[in-house]
Every structure is written in structure tokens, then in C-alpha cells.
Queue: 4 jobs
Job 1
Amino acid sequence: MKTDGHYQLEGDAPELYERYLVPAVTSRWAADLLARAHPRPGETVLDLACGTGVVARQAAKLMGRGSVIGADVNAGMLRVARAVAADMQIAWLEASALNLPFSQDSFDLVLCQLGLQFFPSQGLALVEMHRVLSPAGRIALSVFSRIERTPGANAFVLALDRVLGPHASGMKRGEHLFQHPDQLRTLLQNAGFLSVEVTTVSQEISFPSVLDYVRFQLMATPMARLLADRSDCEPIISEIAMETKCLSTALIRQDGSFSFPQEAFVATGRKSA
């Protein structure tokens, strides 16, 4: 479902996302992002498009003391975030990145992991991030690079179009909106950020099987809407998995697992020099 230009996860998709995709994918990128952002004890940190909160949780553990707020437009993801981090001092807030409910100079650090590409206006979201940062504040964010640089995802989108018809892969391809690091660098600079650095990073991603990867993509992400009107999804999922497997034979280990490099652009910057 799409609301005000934002994709929503419904039903049990947020729980599946936390259970399967966070350990396999987003926890790896969270560790990388935080290693570059260096959250410090006592700081005030915003994790924007926080999803089920893996970045916020890791930031809070690294800091020890301070204030961490996780904000997301998706109520279902926030529900899971609250449950998973029930024993942690993290505030969770439903909010749009295009109209943050915070005053100017509210945060020392804004984090946004793999979320910018989903915002209806990346430029406006970055202006909002810049506004809520303190004068000495900084930003750290990541976005996936072009889909051909992540071969498992590329095979998956080709399989989607073969099985479900042309343009079925549009949402997944949208995750890989950024084709070159300069696109991200320019957006940050246009929003007023200084000392912008963009690094191309690759992580090795592994799933137990091609079928598991396809099932998680179609049940634990906004792509679940592709199968929303089908009473029996498993035959379609299996067919897409078979096509994905045929298109990515070299990526499959001898033990049957599905492993491939996943590439992203990771950017840091400051509000002032």
C-alpha cells in the first residue's frame, strides 16, 4: 500500500522483515554506517526511515548514554521496533521525512540507512535533515547503487518481469535509483551539507536458498502488494524463484545457499565546515 507517496508494510510483513531481512541484510549495513558516523556518548541522534530499528538499536548500544529517536512513516514497522527494543531507552515516532516534527538544531547526528530512495522527494527530505541538525551536526546515510551491481537482485527483477509481466519489477528497481555516487553527493550539497564524502561499499549477502530470498522479498517488503490479490502465493513464489535461479546459477553455492555481493553508496557530511 502507498500512502502520501510512501510505501507501507501491512499484515505480518514487518515481523517477517525483522526476523529474516534484518539479520541477512540491514544489520550488516547498519554496522558499516555507524562505523562511519561515530555516534558519541551523550549525543542526540535521529534514525530516519528507521524501519524496525536496527540502526537505532546499534547506535544506542554504541553510545551508552544519550538520546536516540527512531522515526518512520510506517506504523507497522514502528510497532515491531518498539517490541524488539522494549528494554531500551529509544523513542519511536511516526513521521514523514518530508515534514519532520522537530525544531531547528535538534540533533547532533542524523542517520538514514537505505531509505532515501523511497522518499517522494529526496531533495526535500535532505533539506529537512539539514534543518534539524545542530550547527556542528553531521549526517550519515546509505543508498543502494544500480541494480546490476547487486547480481542477486538483478536476477530477481528479471525473473519478476518474466513471470508477472513487464514492469512488475518497478518497485524493486526503485530501490536502486542511484546510478552514480555523484548523484548522491550533489543532492547532499544542494541541501546545504558540507564536507560531503561518498564511498562505494560492497557487502556479501547470503540467504539459505534462492527460494528463501524470493519469498522474503515478496512477503517481508512492500513488494508483497504484487501478490496481494492472489489466494495461493506459493506456486508463484516458487516459479519466480526457479527463474531467479536460472538467471543466477553462478551465485549459488554448492550447499544450495544464495550468496552475492550487494553494493551501496555510503555518504557522510556536516551542516557546517
Note: DSSP finds nine helices and nine strands in the chain.
Job 2
Amino acid sequence: MAIKNKLLLSELKKVISLDKEASKEISWWSRTSKAEFRELNKLGNIYAIIQKDVVGFIRLKEDKRYKQKTSYLEDVYISKDFRGKNFGKKALKELLKTINYKLKIISPLKLQKYYESLGFNAKYIVLEWPQQIKDILL
């Protein structure tokens, strides 16, 4: 298993296909346009996860508010056929070895231990106002 950015057109097309697969499978997933994928590829912010062929991808989003380059881990998606084989974890470990900038993750609480196992530290707690409570309180 390997990761690669600055993808060839055929690899980028496979990533776009996986993005389409993700949007059908995951209710909150919104598709990314081909133009945006081309821009992410040009910037080096899309990584293909390769096992003979592209089996998943990692998408980063650059945050330009900081002096030091900082990116957020936006998505990790593994094709259904390759899940449960630690491709996501191996790919993230490989990514962390290759980047030389700050990487942040905004993640659901249920994934905290997973990301801590990769060396991330929880620094902030984000509190959300659930819409359901509004009905109870009003």
C-alpha cells in the first residue's frame, strides 16, 4: 500500500469515481466538482491510496490563516472492497511521515481514540447546539 499526490489523470479519475461512490453511500457527503479536484491535485492536497490500483483517497484543505502552512484532514475514504484491512490507518501514517507542515483534524468524538493512536492530541472541544433541544426548550 502506498499514497501518492500529484496524481496522473487516470488516478484522479479513479478518485473522482470514489468521491461519487462516497456520496451515494454516506448521507452527509457532498460531491466535489472535477474542477475542484483538479485544483486540489495541483496544490498537492489530494492523496490516492494505492494497492495496485486506487482504493481510496485522503483530501486535505489548506487553512491560510496561519503563518506556518496548516491543513485540515477533510476526508479519508476507502472503497468498500478494501475496508477492514487498515488501509486508512496505514495511509494516514504514511501521510504523517511525508508532510512537513501542521495537520489538524476536526472529528467526531467517537473517532478521538483512533486519531490519538496516530499521534494526534485533542486540543479543543467544539460544542454544538442540537436543533432537537430547541423544540424541548421553547
Note: The chain has a mean pLDDT of 85.
Job 3
Amino acid sequence: MTVTRALRDAGGSFDTVRSLLLADSFLPHKGGSRTYYYHLYKDWNPDQVTVLTKKVPGWQEFDARESSKYFRIIRRFRPAPSFQYRELPRAALTSLHAIARSQVEPVDVIHSGDLFPQGLVAILLKRLRGFPYIAFCHGEEISQTDRFHYQPAVRNRIYQSADAVIANAEYACERLRKIGVPSERIHKITPGVDCEVFSPGSPNPELRAFHRLSNHFVLLTVARLIPRKGHDMVLRAVAKLGADFPDLRYLIVGSGPEEASLRKLAATLGIAQRVTFAGFVADKQLPDYYRLSNLLVMPNREQNNDLEGFGISFLEASATAKPVIAGRSGGTSEAVKHGISGELIDPKNLDQLVAAIRGFVVNAERGEFMGRLGRKRAATEFDWKARAWELRNITRNIAASRRSARTTNGRIPAA
């Protein structure tokens, strides 16, 4: 039986399935998972998605531009800075807001974009009102919560009680199975990339002149400035390679708490003049920054139980036909095909990183060849529309099952 037929037989409006996405933050807040959600949900016409999230800088302009009859964004409060107990009052307000919205707005399926407190809200709404819910797992939620005393038990219950769990990589699937989530409820949907936006092209001459990168071999990292991204290792590699390659430059795109320490490290290593901190770059400008570079380098690693779930910037670089170097950690082995679109290295081995960068600098043709292979792989294997359709289909199946059960039993099924 098709999803449409099931919804019709259940007596509901089979033309529209209404989803409520709970997310602690959403675009224009930077982050790979936020970009992931945006592309998965932005166009489900005729199904409707309401995003319940927080206010972040630039939200008014973004919401005015992106909102439609089928994709609405409702914002209250500010994102939680951490999962610490002192944030409980803020989490309580978020929970009350979500519960209130579910009372006044038709909802078929809840989607939990974050583990805490959104996952707790989802499981509460399932128990109180019978709403089915879908939870997301990027892998790092499990490693990050393992170090706490009570959070693993709560985390496991959230994932185990979900009607479906969306994992962004095989690494996340493995972690979910280990904590007892049935395989049939785990669906792997990796991030994608828009190959029309991120496309090969010549460097923007004005941007190249602005950053003084003419006639240089440019290493690029596009990521938040946090320890697990490995910016410090790239700085050390540049210092080691500097004598042999005086035209080597390192362009860092992104902002974050590690900026001051990274600037200090660059100065200490004597390479400050070789390093450009571009800071925050708007999404529409990102393709030009990839085109400025010769090689994307992000030796991501596990740091304090935090790791890279996938790495959207690797796909963006591949889509612009740039080779990449990534750390063999977390879910990056699916974003980067070793020997095809780039190289995977031990992120804690500086000699490996130096050797990998050296190989691309001395053999530009090899980098260009890998870039072309990476572009082909991005275009054929990482289409956003196919991923959005897969999630929408999972949602419609869950909605159909719920409506069918309500018709059969005359009530909302218990959690």
C-alpha cells in the first residue's frame, strides 16, 4: 500500500503531512548540522514543516526570505550554550514553548534535531499526546554524553523510543546499534551538497587581491575554530613546510573560541604572515573562498569526546573540484573517499599531515585529478533532493501508521 493510499484510508488529509522540527538553533546560525536540516526540510510542498527554534544573529532577514506556506520558522529565546545543569531553566522554557505549540497547531510527526532538551520534549509529547517522533544522531551526541553520569541513560531512552532515528553516517549507525536502537528503525541519510552553488571556477580576482593570495599555493580550512577541527596541526605543518615552499599560505574561514590561541600559535611558530584569518563568511560567499584555494585541509580528531560526525565542508570542497585532506576520525570516511577525492590521515600524526600536504604541493596535477573525481562523486552520490525525499517518505510512513491506528482504535495509540 502506498503512503498516499494509507493516509487516505486512515481518514486524514492525505495531501498534507504536518511536521514540527525542534532545533536548538537553525540557519543563519553556522554549523554543518544546521545546513543539513535546512536542505532536508526547506521544500516538502505540499507537506508542511514548522521549525521551532531560537533567535540567532540575522534571523529576521533569513526568516523573511525563506519562510513560505509550507516552511515556517518560529523563534523564541536564545540557543543554550551547553548541556550543563545550570541551563535547566532555559531548557524548561524551551520545553513549555514546544508543548504549547503542539496544543495549538496540527502536528502529525515531531522531529527532534537536538538531543537535549528537544529529544526530551519529543519523548514527553509522545507519552502525553501520542505524537510519534523522529530523532537525529550525528554521532558526537553519543560520545559527548558518555562522559556524564546520568545523561547516557536519558539519551538511550530518547533514541530507543523514537519511531525512527536519522543517522548522518555509518559511524552514527554503529553507535546507535551499540546502545540498543533496533536496526530497522535506523535510517542513514548522509549530508549532501548543492553542486550548482558549489561549482568549479576561477578565483575571484578581487577576493584574491584582498587576501593577498595571488600566485600562492593556498591551504583552506572552513570550520568553526574549536579544538577538534585541527587548525593547530595545520599551522604546525605550514611551519615545517615553509622553508621548502615559500609560496605556501593558509586561509582560515570561520570564527570560534580558539581564534586567539591560534593567532598566538601562528606568531610563536613564526608564520603569522603566511596565515589569513578571514573570520565569518556568509554562505553565499563560501564558493568563492573554496575557489581561492588549492587544497582543503581539516585534520579533524576526537577531542574531549567531541568528534566530527561527517564534515559538510569536505563535500563543498569536492563540489568545487578541490582535493581534501581529512582526519580519519568519526564519520569523515564517508565524506572523503581515500585516494579518490582526497586523503584520510591520522589526525594526531604531524608527519603524516606534512607528507600529505607536500604531496599535493609538488604534484599539482594529482590534486587537480582528485578534484575532478571529487566533483563527479559529489554530483552523483550526494544530491540534496534525494535525501530530502527520503526523509519526507519516512515521515509520511510514520504519519500513515499513526492515522491508521487512530482510525482502528478510535484513539491515539499510546507510546
Note: The longest strand covers residues 48-53.
Job 4
Amino acid sequence: MKYLIPSLLAASLIGGGIGFSNLALASDDDHRGPHHEGKHDGKGCDRHKAWMKDLSDEQRKKIDAMHADYKTKKMAIKEKMRDAKVALATEMTKDAPKQKDIDKKIDAILKLKREKMQLKVAHKIEVRKVLTKEQRVQFDEHVMNKAKYGRKGHYGKHDEHGHRHHD
């Protein structure tokens, strides 16, 4: 038991370091790979952000500022979630863990997940307000595709044989 907590802490630090190194690679255009060549405008892959192509400079500035604020708030929530998960792991690894205390830690994590999701939805609603009626059509399509198909969107779907399809 006396080695468990230091081992968990070391694993967290190593995992965090790997995550940060991946972020550093992801931000470097030279390391994006061939699937991004010629398709990157600094805001993500064009086909995933088609709704952004017709933004005016004023709209882009507003949305960029809103997005920066959103990301700052999201990161704060994610840091709290990380702390809450460590607290849960610590509680679970006690010699005699109490389910009541574990449930409290789980509730704290779920509350933060709810807060993060509410922040995300509020951000999308605010972005939508900046758009024209025509731009909202593409934005709404983007939102619906992400809801249906997840992070990779429509473009990341594979059939049962692992083949990628682009409808």
C-alpha cells in the first residue's frame, strides 16, 4: 500500500507528459501527416469546418474570441475533473474504502461533466447567433453530423470490414 499512491502519481505524471507531447506535435504543421496537406486553414480540417469558409472578418474575430473564452473555461473544468478523478482513485485504493465516499467522488465528477457539456452547448448557441441565416444552415449540419457520428464526423465512419466511406 505504501507504494501504491507514489506509483499512481508517477503514472499520472507520465501519462500527462505523453499527452502534452502529443499536443505539441499536433500544433506543429510539419507533423500533421498527409491527410491534412493543403486542407488546413488554422481552424481544423476544412471539410469538418465548412461552415466557417464564408465568415466575414468581423464574424471570425468574434467567434475566435468566443472560442478562446470557451477553451479557457473548458480547461479549468477539465483540471477540476482530473483532480476529482485522482481523489476517486485515492479513495478506491484505501485499505477499507467506503462506498458512500466513493459515490460522492463519482457525483463530483459527473457534476463537472455536466458543467462542461452545458458550457459547450452554450458556446455553440452563442456562435450560432453571430451567423447569418445561410451560414446557420451549414453550422447546423455540422452540429448534427457531430451528434450523429461523433468527433470524427461523417468522414471517419468505417464499415464492418474497417473500410472508410465518404458519402
Note: The CA atoms of residues 24 and 147 lie 28 Å apart.
